[in-house]
Write a structure and sequence with these properties.
This protein is an alpha+beta fold. Helices cover 47% and strands 18% of the residues.
C-alpha cells in the first residue's frame, strides 16, 4: 500500500508551547488600543483577536516535527508531501491525521536473462563522409559578400510586418541574422530574399499558416518591409594539410587517417547510444510484467520537474515559458497533459532501478564518490576542492554512480 493514514496526538504541553510562539509572532503586527505594537498581554490579545487566530501558525510550528518523528518511528520512505487533516483542536492538544505517500512495492518477477537482442553497431562510408563535411563546415570562415544572396547564406536584416497596413506586435526586428534555407521564418519569407544584395530593400508578401496561434494573424496575408544590412557566407576549408593541422588531432595527417578517426568516433558514439537504447528496452520489458498503481503525487512531481527543465532550456535560448506557450499555442494544462505519460514512465523506471538496487545490494561508497571528483574537476576545469564545495554535489554523484551500477548490471545480464 503506497498510501497509509496515521493519527498523531500533539499533547497539551507541546501545543501550548506552539501557541506561545504563535502569539509572539502575531502580537507584533496586531493593533490593540492602549498598547504599543507587540506589547499587548496574551490575555488581552486573545479577547480581541480570538484564540483561534493563533491556531494556523501554531499548527505550522508543530506539524514538521510531528511528521519527521512519524517517518522515523515507522521507517517510512515518503515520496511526496503528506495530506494533512486536523481532526480536533482543544486545550488538551490537537489530533492530526497524516496520509503518507510512500514508494509502491514492486514485485520484480524477472529482470535478468530476458532474451533481448542488442542491435549491432554499423557505421557506413556515407555516414563518415557526412560527418567529415560537417566538420569542414564547423571550421568554415564566415565572410561578408557583395554578391547576391543564395541558399545557405546568412542575411542580416531589419524587418517590420504589416497587417492591412498596420504594424503588428512581434513583427519587427533589427540586425536579425537569418540563414536562408533554415525555415525559421514564415513559409515563403526566406525564398524571397534570394537574389538580393547588401543595402537592398524589398516588400515581401507572405501568408501565415492556418494553425498559427495568433487569431489576428492565422491565415492572413501580410506584408514585411525588409532591408538587407549584410550578407554573410561560409568559406569551407579544403581537405588539405593546413586543415589537418588546424584540427590539432595527433593521429590525423591525411584524408585516410581523418576517415579512420571519424569512423572510430562515430562508432564509439553509436555504441554509447546503443547501450542507452538497449537499457531502455530492458526497462520496458521489465515494466511489462509489473502491475503497480503509482501515486498521482509522484507523477505530478515528475511533470513539474520536466516542465522546470523545459523552462531552464528555454532560458538558455533567451526565451521564457510564456513566449514558448504563445508561439506553440499551448497552455500550462496542455504541457501537463503532454508530459503525463512520459512522466509516468520515468517514475516507473526509477522504481524498477531502485528495486533492482535493493535486490542486488548495490551501494555507492564514499570512496566511489571521492574517486569521481577528479574526473568532474577535469571535465569542468575546476579545482577538486571547488567541486567538493559545490552544494549537493556528493549526493548527485552518489545518485549518478548508483544508477550507472544498476544499468551495468542489467546490461551484463541481458
Amino acid at each position: 500500500m503506497s498510501k497509509q493514514k496515521y493519527m498523531v496526538k500533539i499533547d497539551a504541553k507541546e501545543w501550548e508551547g506552539a501557541l506561545d510562539k504563535s502569539f509572539n509572532k502575531n502580537v507584533k503586527k496586531a493593533k490593540i488600543d492602549g498598547f504599543r505594537a507587540g506589547k499587548a498581554p496574551r490575555e488581552i490579545y486573545e479577547k480581541k483577536m480570538g484564540k483561534e487566530s493563533l491556531y494556523a501558525d501554531a499548527i505550522d510550528f508543530v506539524l514538521p516535527e510531528a511528521y519527521s518523528k512519524l517517518i522515523k518511528d515507522n521507517k517510512l520512505e515518503p515520496v511526496a508531501s503528506p495530506n494533512v487533516d486536523i481532526k480536533s483542536i482543544s486545550d488538551e492538544g490537537i489530533e492530526v491525521e497524516f496520509e503518507v505517500i510512500t514508494k509502491p512495492e514492486l514485485n520484480l518477477k524477472k529482470y535478468k536473462n530476458l532474451g533481448l537482442k542488442k542491435p549491432e553497431v554499423e557505421v557506413t562510408k556515407e555516414e563518415v563522409e557526412k560527418e567529415i563535411e560537417e566538420l569542414r563546415s564547423h571550421y568554415a570562415e564566415i565572410i561578408l559578400k557583395e554578391d547576391a544572396i543564395v541558399l545557405g547564406d546568412t542575411a542580416v536584416i531589419d524587418f517590420e510586418g504589416f497587417n492591412d497596413g498596420i504594424a503588428f506586435q512581434g513583427g519587427k526586428g533589427e540586425n536579425y541574422p537569418l540563414e536562408i534555407g533554415s525555415k525559421t521564418f514564415i513559409p515563403g519569407f526566406e525564398e524571397q530574399l534570394i537574389g538580393l544584395k547588401a543595402n537592398d530593400e524589398k516588400e515581401i508578401k507572405v501568408t501565415f499558416p492556418e494553425e498559427y496561434p495568433s487569431d489576428e494573424l492565422k491565415g492572413k496575408e501580410v506584408t514585411f518591409k525588409v532591408k538587407i544590412n549584410e550578407v554573410k557566407t561560409k568559406s569551407i576549408p579544403e581537405l588539405d594539410e593546413e586543415f589537418y593541422k588546424d584540427l590539432d588531432i595527433e593521429e590525423v595527417t591525411s584524408y585516410e587517417t581523418l576517415f579512420e578517426y571519424v569512423k572510430k568516433q562515430l562508432t564509439e558514439s553509436k555504441e554509447e547510444q546503443n547501450k542507452q537504447q538497449f537499457a531502455e528496452q530492458i526497462l520496458d520489458e521489465i515494466a511489462k510484467n509489473i502491475d503497480v498503481e503509482i501515486p498521482h503525487e509522484m507523477i505530478d512531481d515528475e511533470i513539474h520537474f520536466m516542465i522546470n527543465q523545459l523552462e531552464q532550456n528555454l532560458m538558455m535560448q533567451g526565451m521564457d515559458i510564456q513566449s514558448f506557450l504563445q508561439i506553440t499555442g499551448k497552455t500550462h494544462e496542455d504541457l501537463h497533459k503532454e508530459y503525463e505519460e512520459p512522466a509516468k514512465k520515468r517514475v516507473l523506471q526509477a522504481l524498477i532501478l531502485n528495486e533492482v538496487a535493493k535486490l542486488e545490494n548495490i551501494e555507492v561508497t564514499d570512496e566511489d564518490v571521492d574517486a569521481e571528483i577528479p574526473m568532474i574537476a577535469l571535465k569542468y576545469q575546476l579545482k577538486e576542492e571547488e567541486v567538493r564545495e559545490l552544494h549537493g554535489v556528493k549526493d548527485a554523484i552518489r545518485s549518478d554512480l548508483k544508477t550507472r551500477k544498476i544499468f551495468d548490471l542489467l546490461l551484463e545480464n541481458n
